[in-house]
User: What shape does this take?
Amino acid sequence: MNWYDIIFYVFALLTIVSAVGVVFSRNIVYAAFSLLFAFFGVAALYVLLAADFIAITQILLYVGGILVLIVFGIMLTSRANSVEMKKGILRIAPSVIVAGVIAGTLIGVLTTTRWPSAGMGPAEETAKPIGTLLMTNFVLPFELASILLLVALVGAVIIARREERKEGLK
Amino acid sequence: MHNFITYYLGAGFWGSLVSSIIPLVFILPFALVAIWLELKISAHMQDRVGPMRTGRWHGWAQPLADVTKLIQKEDIIPAAADKALYILAPALVFVGAYAAYAAIPFSPAYIGSDINLGIFYIVAVSALVVIGILMAGWSSNNKWSLLGAMRTAAQLVSYEIPSSLAILAVVMVAGSLNLNDICAAQSGWFWNWFVFGKFPFLFITFIIYFIASLAETNRSPFDIPEAESELVAGYHTEYSGMRFAFFYLAEYANMFVVAAVAAVLFFGGWNSPFGTFLSGPVWGVFWLISKGMVLVFIQIWLRWTLPRFRVDQLMYLSWKILTPFALVNIFAVGLWVVLRG
Assistant: This one.
């Protein structure tokens, strides 16, 4: 067992424990902050896979963007701390079906995927090939994603502005 | 040889450990010097003399006395605070500031981690600071803390955009995200530095980056997160003793991070201003820290000169002035890079 293995198991444990914390925490704020460690652990696992660009993007987007928005939303909600998370079992049949389908898909993916593993080589540059591929082979999906994001942005602004106008008319 | 420590000690456990502790050895004395400078500069700008007695010579030992006082203070955790998050928050804020030092090239022979994505990494880890501040504001269970934390998050998220766009313009010119490569691209005399050599494009970029970086360190004129006349102290209202000292240390560590990034991106980093005169690995440390200190001085100067922005003015400046200018600038720089060949 060398250092890479030890670091891998530490971060894998961090990811799993905090992901479990997100799901089972009764306190919604704790769940949001557990997500921080889960994202961080996943980023570390990407680094160990020599995917440094994906790892840093993971931290930038998920921690710096999505998590900040989630925490912001929770903080803006009054009495966020006293929100009772739903306990007990509601609607057995639909939840069994959903959980079964997801579990089946995951097990199917796990068993049918080949998991090639190679020794850690020297870190290669990843930003340049990703950028070149995005601008050549994958330029259409890339641009479509940008347009989708732009549409979402404009939509959000319109919804926010409409509420403001209604308040002004009253 | 990018890191003389891992070169001599090997890239194993001990080399990595020593190499990662070095920035801390720099941050602690830097914070003491910067606090003293802040006290003295603010005093002279307001026609006072500032601390004069502690340590005899111009009160040089005042920050040491302050630190001793902070260590001795009682550690108060409010009864209604969320204890676990309250304790974790200052550490997280400091980790965010400290992690950025891993990619700062202090000299051609010392950079914590010579990764290809250095500048991208620095932009990303500053996200931890935002989360830490939100955590501090929420867990204190205090209205001022919460308001301060919300303002900080809104401000940091908004100003990340113009600062990232400004950094992107430099990356386009240098053709690399690696901070050592960006330094090396500006070697030679000081007119090769990006801020002068690529006039006026990167000069405008520097102004945009510098304004945005002031906002990212939560300092005047962008200090509404802690605005003492309205919010007592913002997100760290409830903190005392060492936990407060951690926020303070993180703020000064962050000031140097943005100054060092500006020095690397626009002022040649570890390059000597005079060609090969006084250049080399050891002088590199001197030049980077001197350039950083000059920019830190300008930050202090602006803090004690300008009044605080209102919240709406702050958002107006970021979204309607800096971001459009940064976008037009990126377009101009891109066009120029392409046309030049």
Summary: The CA atoms of residues 167 and 231 of chain B lie 32 Å apart.
